[in-house]
Design brief:
Layout (H helix, E strand, L loop, with lengths): L5 E5 L3 H12 L3 E6 L12 E4 L5 H11 L3 E4 L6 H9 L8 H8 L1 H11 L7 E4 L2 H11 L3 E5 L9 E3 L5 H11 L7 E5 L5 E10 L2 E4 L3 E6 L2 E7 L5 H18 L3 E10 L2 E8 L9 H4 L4 H10 L12 E7 L7 E4 L1 H4 L5 E5 L10 E8 L3 H14 L1 E4 L1
Helix pairs in contact: 1-10, 2-3, 3-4, 4-5
The chain binds adenosine-5'-triphosphate, glycinamide ribonucleotide and magnesium ion.
């Protein structure tokens, strides 16, 4: 068997599963790492390890044991200081160890974007304890958005609507972060018309932008995405400018999900993932090369001659409503009877409230048709306890 290089994925969820599949298509040997066993990407990788990825020593041990050519972070919560050291010692971290470190928590990336690069963002304050938090919220005004520094998919996030809401929001933030810490960010609430992810690829072919992906979020997590999203010429130009500036500052090669809010006359930078983005799952159906294929091509230094939408597409994730140790997903047959529709079932070992378990992907002759189909397909799916 020809195996070119060894790729180690740090984080092995649904996004990583697709990365591993694409890596294997180009002949790579793949290793999946995560904090729990039987994670989605582990089910398709050549080998896997279960470690606490926030533990510097555990991370070093697995890297030294496998000596991968490429270390590919898939989630934020990794001991990124150790990644910086490993990079200094000659290991290659995607896109760069500094990018992983800056985006690991909200403070690094927000200060870089706003204070160093001068990109437009919501006003914000950081707070270390309840008193500072209450003061920050009053300064931002109500409503404002409260988030733990290290969390994703909306965990620990809430909108604080009034003085009376402070206690509730503080408790949510303290209970929802990925690590035990009290520091939070309080952001001014932006009333936007729509929000997008501008997938941006840094590659041997230069910096390329995918057509914009529109999405809707509920409780800080995405519930629907579609591509392409309609934007004015001015909005698109500004979105590309912002994405170009932030991805140049992070450097390296690979795909980045640049999250932007589109308001009446302004485009705001929200955050960036230096890796495939959940809303970009739609590209599995709608693009000539998915965001996962693009990530792998870019990090291997291969050319990307063009990126285009093959058909307008939409995605709808299936989220669990209960915590179940043993579960099955019902309704696949009906969902797959919807025209131009595919499913990805992630194979996560257990459900949790709000956990994304599968996704419906549809295309159509218009974004509206694709959205309608994905929503039809999703309605057929349900999660049952065994
Ligand atoms: N300042 C804000 N004003 C208005 N809405 C906001 C603001 N910040 C976040 N949101 C809403 O909450 C969503 C999630 O926020 P954010 O992307 O910061 O969270 P996250 O936990 O990092 O999510 P993910 O990791 O899935 O990208 C945004 O996409 C947006 O819909
Ligand atoms: N917004 C970031 C995102 O979507 N990340 C994706 O979710 C997985 C964690 O899922 P889990 O919490 O269900 O284990 C991550 O591993 C990644 O694939
Ligand atoms: Mg986000």
């Amino acid at each position: 068997m020809y195996i070119g290089k060894k790729l180690m994925l740090l984080g092995s969820g649904e996004l990583g599963k697709e990365v591993i599949i694409e890596a294997q298509r180009l002949g790579l040997e793949t290793i999946a790492v995560d904090r729990y066993d039987h994670a989605p990407a582990m089910q398709v990788a050549h080998r896997s390890y279960v470690i606490d990825m926030l533990d510097r020593q555990a991370l070093r041990e697995v890297v030294e044991r496998e000596k991968p050519d490429l270390i590919v972070p898939e989630i934020e919560a990794i001991a990124t200081a150790e990644l910086v050291k490993l990079e200094e010692e000659g290991h290659r971290v995607i896109p760069t160890a500094r990018a992983a470190q800056l985006t690991m928590d909200r403070e690094g990336i927000r200060r870089l974007a706003s204070e160093t690069l001068g990109l437009p963002t919501a006003d914000y304050r950081f707070a270390d304890n309840y008193e500072q938090f209450a003061q920050a919220a009053r300064e931002m005004g109500f409503p404002c958005v409260v988030k733990p520094l290290m969390s994703s998919s909306g965990k620990g996030q809430s909108v604080c609507r009034s003085e009376e809401d402070l206690d509730r929001c503080w408790t949510i933030a303290m209970e929802g972060g990925r690590v035990q810490q009290t520091r939070v960010i309080v952001e001014a609430f932006i009333t936007f018309e729509s929000e997008i992810t501008l997938l941006t690829v840094r590659s041997a072919s230069g910096t390329l932008f995918c057509p914009p992906i529109g999405h809707i979020q509920k409780d800080g997590d995405y519930i629907e995405s579609w591509q392409p999203h309609e934007m004015t010429e001015h909005q698109l130009a500004e979105a590309k400018r912002i994405a170009g500036v932030i991805t140049d500052a992070l450097g390296g090669t690979g795909i980045f999900g640049v999250e932007l809010f589109l308001a009446q006359d302004k485009v705001y930078f929200s955050e960036v993932s230096p890796r495939p983005h959940d809303t970009g799952l739609v590209t599995l159906a709608s693009q000539n090369l998915s965001e996962f294929a693009l990530h792998v091509r870019a990090i291997l230094g291969y050319p990307i001659p063009e990126i285009y939408v093959t058909a307008p597409g939409a995605s709808r994730p299936l989220k669990a409503e209960n915590e179940l140790g043993d579960y099955r997903i019902d309704g696949l047959e009906k969902a797959l009877s919807v025209p131009q529709t595919q499913l990805r079932v992630f194979g996560k070992p257990v459900t949790k409230v709000g956990r994304r378990m599968a996704v419906a992907l549809s295309t159509g002759s218009s974004v509206e048709e694709a959205r309608e189909r994905a929503s039809q397909a999703l309605k057929h799916l349900s999660i049952q306890g065994e």
